[in-house]
Amino acid sequence: MELRHLRYFIAVAEHLHFGRAAKELNISQPPLSQQIAQLEEEIGAQLFYRTNRSVRLTPAGEHLFREAKAIMGNLERATTQTRKIHTGEAGKLAVGYTGMLSSGIIRILRSFKDKHSDVELILHRMSSAMQNEALAERRIDIGFLCPPIDGETLGFFHLYDYPFVVALPSSHPLAADTSPIRLSELKGEPFIMPPRGEEAGYFDQIIALCNRAGISPDIRQEAEGVTTILSLVAAGIGISIVSTAAAETQREEIFYREIKGADDAIGLYLAWNRQDASPLAERFVQAAKVFIPNQDK
Amino acid sequence: MELRHLRYFIAVAEHLHFGRAAKELNISQPPLSQQIAQLEEEIGAQLFYRTNRSVRLTPAGEHLFREAKAIMGNLERATTQTRKIHTGEAGKLAVGYTGMLSSGIIRILRSFKDKHSDVELILHRMSSAMQNEALAERRIDIGFLCPPIDGETLGFFHLYDYPFVVALPSSHPLAADTSPIRLSELKGEPFIMPPRGEEAGYFDQIIALCNRAGISPDIRQEAEGVTTILSLVAAGIGISIVSTAAAETQREEIFYREIKGADDAIGLYLAWNRQDASPLAERFVQAAKVFIPNQDK
DNA sequence: TGTAATGATACGTACAGACTATCAATCAAC
DNA sequence: GTTGATTGATAGTCTGTACGTATCATTACA
């Protein structure tokens, strides 16, 4: 059986007239009769009552008519959707993000979703190291992450820079003052940090920052993900140095202070697998480029 | 596009190897490559990433793969069901019945349903006259009805004979006695009868029965359907003469008495449209024939 | 560097589906 | 009854295309 049989069958069932159906199909009547006969033979069921003057569907034919129309409709929708996925108008896009959905990331996601309503964005929170791996293995299509980035297999570009701030429990003695803090004041404080294996760039930058201020952070606690780190700070377990992106959502239990004399910032990058990136991923990357700040020279 | 394309595509998507897929399809590899290329061209989407050493589905291909399998499954089920409807193993069967589903009718329906679980029996209560019309117009496939039957267009045979009984309100003076009643005792009683136009055979037989007993029934009320008639009797509106089939289900408000010296009975017939009876209707008729009483000579 | 594996390409062929012509059956008009 | 129109089926021919064989290009691996 071929789709031709179904197409012809539907035409005859709709017109209940071989001649007119043939005309609609742009073929002559004899081959139409033949194909219908073939279909009946193959299915093993008479589909039409035919006298020389009238054509009517049998009960079996009526059933097949309904089914055939549904099948052709499904096929039509399937091919259209397939084409859309190819062009990147539709599909699923797995997106990784490190800690919090900063307003910068949300703006990009929102804008893309608005223009591509058929696209399903699936968000995965994972560390920068995990994103490198997931992008390489195509478990995610897009990553919002911090260095290091495996430039061999991944394409990437810089999006935003977020300065560092110190996160203190509100109950902490240093939390009273709103002025920028000197990092040397943090000497001996218990630090909460992500594991270096998960966020090497972030980790090293903070260490360097502290070293420059003449202190060596006393890491008492490791925690995965900014939200977890901040929860621990809120609980009074220790202090941490986080990006202003994480500090966007204020919490009562946490007090943020800028760092005096340091304009260090952590870079947020967008990355994708540069080999066989899905069309959707490519679209996303293109759309995201618009959000690069100061791109006008 | 033809089903061939989908079949070939599914084979390649399952094997992710053109050579092996071709072998399974019993064709050689080159035409398989061609057909897949055609499919991609027609849909307007790349379906496989092909290097010379590996074949992988694109996101678009993965979507089409799922859809194509579903479509092939639907098609398979549709053709099987169509064949079943043709042979009478499945389908819908509209059955008409006059008044009540007597135990005789129920036995036939039950037996048929047991042997043909894929068949949906749709019951329609309608008078014998309506059934004649509905059978001719194919609104129903099978009728359980009383004469007259239009032998021109309908095939039919006799099933059961149900003797007549008198139905009295329990409060009626004549309802005390359990012995057979003489019809002459009913002189002057208000009769409830179906309209003659709907149940001519039944109507005329009762009139003849009464006439033989020397009375002319005083028809005060007409009602469509035995259940309606019996409800009116129960309400004390009048009396009626009904078949023992209707009397099968006893009600407290109604008292039935046999009729003395009359072995008249109303015949229940099974009828169908003898032109292009649906295969299912034919099966039903054949199955019902087993229930003709005294068929052994 | 040579060999095996794999999908794409080139080209000839056979068959199936399409066309034209015609037939058979039915219905309607007179 | 007879004739003409309508309609689906059949017969015979032709053509497009799906398939097969042979071969190539590329890649992986020994």
Report strand % of chain A.
Answer: 15-25%
Query: Largest beta sheet of chain A, briefly?
Result: 7 strands, mixed
Helix content of chain A: 40-55%
Along the chain, the helix and strand elements of chain A come as HHHEEHEHEHEEEHEHEEEH
Low-confidence stretches of chain A: none
Q: In CATH terms, what is the fold-level topology of the largest domain in chain A?
A: D-Maltodextrin-Binding Protein, domain 2
Number of domains of chain A: 2
Per CATH, the class of the largest domain in chain A reads Alpha Beta
Tally of contiguous helical segments of chain A: 9
**Sheet/helix structural class of chain A:** alpha/beta
Number of strands of chain A: 11
- CATH architecture field of the largest domain in chain A: 3-Layer(aba) Sandwich
Provide an overview of this structure:
The structure is a homodimer of 297-residue chains. Chain A folds into 2 domains: 3-87, Arc Repressor Mutant, subunit A, CATH 1.10.10; 91-297, 3-Layer(aba) Sandwich (D-Maltodextrin-Binding Protein, domain 2). Helix content of chain A is 40%, strand content 23%. Chain A contains 9 helices and 11 strands. In chain A, strands 3, 4, 5, 6, 9, 10 and 11 form a 7-stranded mixed sheet that branches. A two-stranded antiparallel ribbon of chain A has the order 1-2. In chain A, strands 7-8 form a two-stranded parallel sheet. The interface between A and B is large, with 36 and 36 residues. Chain A binds a DNA duplex (30 and 30 nucleotides) through helix 3.
